[in-house]
Design brief:
Blueprint lengths: L1 H17 L7 E2 L3 E2 L2 E2 L7 H4 L4 E5 L11 E5 L5 E7 L9 E6 L5 E2 L9 H7 L4 E4 L3 E6 L4 E6 L28 E5 L2
Protein name: Lipoprotein
């Protein structure tokens, strides 16, 4: 009986000590730092206890339309912009996270400081959307969208939204303008 008890305590201690602690800057398909795909707006203050949270209301002055939540570190540097599912509901789930700070990285070291080549070398690009001023690269593997300004593209691709842009059309050194994780 005593040996069994010692074995159980030893195994429990081993499992607890081997548990990987969540990095506050790791980005994956289900989480961005300590945020998850099921994080509620009302829980944000507890998650970002050492940071500052600010709600941003659109220019029209209506508080329930296009409300986003900005997260700043203690030094006042913007970290993230969060978009909840329902703008005026504290029990709403965070559905989109725009990553601003370069410390947030995927397991393949992709951040807002990465280039097109970094993304293309590490992930399969699921779709490329040609917008007015940018192209959006979708990576389903991590629920991510990467926006690249059209000024990073060759001149012949910048002005025609009907052009089908392929990965071979985007220069390797094209910089990421925006990096989003989407949970909808």
């Amino acid at each position: 009986m005593k040996k069994t008890l010692i074995a159980i305590v030893s195994l429990t201690t081993l499992f607890i000590s081997c548990k990987k602690e969540q990095s506050p800057f790791e980005v994956s398909k289900q989480h961005v730092g300590l945020l998850t795909d099921s994080t509620l707006v009302k829980d944000l203050k507890a998650i970002f206890i050492n940071d500052s949270i600010a709600e941003k209301i659109n220019n029209s002055g209506f508080s329930n339309i296009n409300k986003t939540i900005e997260v700043f570190d203690k030094s006042g540097n913007k970290l993230l912009i969060l978009t909840p599912e329902y703008k005026s509901d504290t029990t709403a789930v965070v559905k989109s996270v725009q990553i601003i700070d370069a410390r947030y990285k995927t397991d393949k070291n992709i951040s807002v400081s990465s280039t097109f080549a970094d993304i293309n070398d590490n992930y399969t690009i699921s779709r490329i959307d040609n917008l007015i001023n940018s192209v959006v690269l979708s990576v389903n593997e991590i629920n991510a969208s990467f926006t690249i300004d059209k000024n990073e593209l060759p001149a012949n691709l910048r002005f025609d939204m009907n052009t089908n842009i392929e990965t071979t059309n985007i220069p390797d050194n094209a910089k990421i303008k925006y990096f989003f994780i989407n949970w909808y």
